[in-house]
Amino acid sequence: MHYIVLDLEWNQSPRGKAGKRTGMPFEIIEIGAVKLDGEMRTVEVFNEVIKPAVYRQLHYKTKEILHMDIQELEKARKFQDVIGDFFKWCGDDYIMCTWGSMDLTELQRNLAFFKVENPMGKPLLYYDVQKLFSLLYEDGKSRRSLKDAVEYLEIEEDIPFHRAFDDTLYTVKIMQRMDLDAVRKYVSVDYFRLPDKKEEEIYIVFGRYAKYVSRVFATREKAMADKGAVSTKCYRCGKALRKRIRWFPVNAKTYLCLAYCPEHGYMKGKLRLKKAEAGGVFVVKTLKLISESDAEAVQMKKLEMSKKRKESKASSPASDSPEPQFLKASSPLRADAQLQSSLPLK
C-alpha cells in the first residue's frame, strides 16, 4: 500500500457571499501530492495547477497567500482532466494523508460539482497528519498549523509555505519524523459521503476510544430517537451498558452521558449532531473508558447544565413541565446512580 500525501489550494468568489455558487464554496486551482512507500520513501510526485471554471477571478486572499495570478491558471488544464490523471497516478492500493480534514472534503465537493465519479472508498478512511502529530507530541486534542509543526520538529524551512506541492513536501518531512506505527490505528473518517442505511453505519474501535458514525436522519429529533445512535456498549467486552447519567446537552449540538461496565468501569459518551452535506443531520458518537474522577467531572457538568437550565426557566414564563430530579452536588458518584432525562434511551 502507498501513502498519498495530498495538499490542495483553492479559490473562492472574489465578491464574497454574493457571488458564491451553490455546491462550490471553494474551487480547486492546484494539486500537490507525493506518493510514499511503506518505508516513507518517495516513489513519485504529482504537481499541477488547474484552470478555473467557476471563479474566473482570484479572491484577493488567494493572490496574497499563493502569489499566483489568473494568467498562470488560464494556461492550465481543466479540473476534469487533471483530477482524472491524478487518480490514475494514485493507483489502486493507497490511503490519503492530509494536514487537517478540509482538503478531502473540498476535493469531493469539486468532484460532485463537476460530475466526476468519486473513486475513493466509502467510508473514506484517511490519515489526518495534523491529528497524528497531536497524538504523538501533544495532548491529542490541540491542532498546530503546518508551519508550527515544522518549527516544533526543527525541520529546515528551505521552501515557502502555502503552495500545494510545497506544503505537501513539509507534510512528508513531518511524516518521515513520526513513529507512524504508534498511531497507525488512528485513522480518520471523512463525513462528506455518509452511510445510506443502517447496515452501512460506521463503528471503529481505536486503542483509547470507539467511534460511531450514523446514517442521515431528517431531523435531530429522529436522530436522538434512534436506539443505535444513543445506545452505549463497552468496546472492550461488547456488553450493552445502562447509563448512570443519561444523555444531556452541553450546547445545541453536543451531548454527554455516563455509563458503567461492571468489568471495565466508567465510560463517557460524547454525541455530536452534525449537518449532512445534502441536508438532514447525522450523529458522531464516541465512547471512552475513564477514571472515577473523570466520571465525577461528568456528574458535575450535568449539575452545572441543570442549574443553567433552571435559571433560564426561572427567567422565562412559568411552565407546567415538571423539573427533572438530579443528584445533589455533594453526593458521591455511585455505580447505581441514575439521573432523569427527557431524551430517549435504549
TrEMBL record:
InterPro entries listed in its UniProt record: 3-5_Exoribonuclease, ERI-1_3'hExo-like, Ribonucl_H, RNaseH-like_sf, RNaseH_sf
GO molecular function: 3'-5'-RNA exonuclease activity; nucleic acid binding
Keyword Glycoprotein listed: no
Region (Disordered): 303-346
Exonuclease domain segment(s): 2-184
Coiled-coil annotated spans: none
Domain of life of the source: Bacteria
Cited Pfam families: RNase_T
Keywords: Exonuclease, Hydrolase, Nuclease
Record's protein name: Exonuclease domain-containing protein
UniProt organism field: Qiania dongpingensis
Lineage of source species: Bacteria, Bacillati, Bacillota, Clostridia, Lachnospirales
